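Researcher: Here's the sequence for the chain we discussed earlier.
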Amino acid sequence: MTDEKTASFAALLRRCTEAGTLLNVTFHSPTDGDGLKVRGELRQIGASRVLQLETSLTEGRVAQRNLSPEEILLATEELFDTYRKADLTDTGGSASLMISKKGAVTLLKKGKPGEGEESAPLRGNNREKRRLLDGSEPFLIPLGIADKNGRIHDRMQAKFRQIARFSEYIADAEKRLSGDGELYVCDLCCGKSYLSFAAYHVLTAVCGRKVRMTCVDLKESVMDYCRSVAREAGFGGMEFLAMNIGDFEPERAPDLVISLHACDTATDIVLDFAARHEARMILSTPCCQRELNRAMDCPTLDFIADIPILRQKLASTATDALRLLKLEAEGYRCDATELIDPEDTPKNTMLRAWKRTDFDPASPEADEKRARFTRTASFLFGGHIPDHWRIRED
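Model: Thanks. This is the structure I predict for it:
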């Protein structure tokens, strides 16, 4: 898309790149609603200064593209065919461009972008990959994971690897949560909140977002412990509620719902909560999927189900796949991946889902997804689908 205002934004981006005053630029709010962003910063590659654009993919992976100043105008025009918003900051000020769904373009400026006299910090491209966690984070000591010198205790090495890997998923999730406002995060069945603290740290200290986070679990004593850790770590945006997750009502639609190892149908309660309250993104690692193991009534699969250890694995895999089918029928894009090496924990499947902005519950596509879920659930449960598995009609 090209008009006077988008051309002005592209020219401003080129001018900031040429002058070396650009701090960052972000293209977000894609037209297909997948939540991905493109971020750009100045880089020094050999003798040349370039604008390096980084597109978030999945599992913390990115695709990079280096642009010379001469290539920026065309590249920006192409990006505005995909993204409806862009924000630019340089040492002189900032600029934001917004394209409405009807094609109206608004360009706002603050300060004097493009007129900065101070050069921006310039990094080379050949730098060591930054680890999100290195052991010195303020929550690791009170949790008993690291000592005061930032050394991870031997007995907690596996737990730290789990937390570090989960942190990468959180950083990837933040890239999909476009916008710069406060993030509202819910961790349900949080337990001692190892991952809650990691998520809060990454979103605030690494991603630079303002965060309000509510963690819910049953035991008041455990929530008291988590409150003390949060105070010691200086995590003022976290709250801990001792209550049944089925009784919890969020203050608004959550941006992110997370859950680690919620046992059996507790995971289904979490996923139902997230879908019912239209969470923008969900990260869930299930645990001990017993329900289908007990209730499965599918003669076609008896050649597997008659062998106890294989029945257990079948039920676990089928339960997680059915959960994703249900979320797809409720308007989410979904996938599944590994949280961590199976040697650290066998409960390592990560279910991920992000809310589609292009999903119409009354469309033929939605009807087909609901029908597919119902067929599959009926097949596995022998025609008697439990009430809590049914898709809500409202």
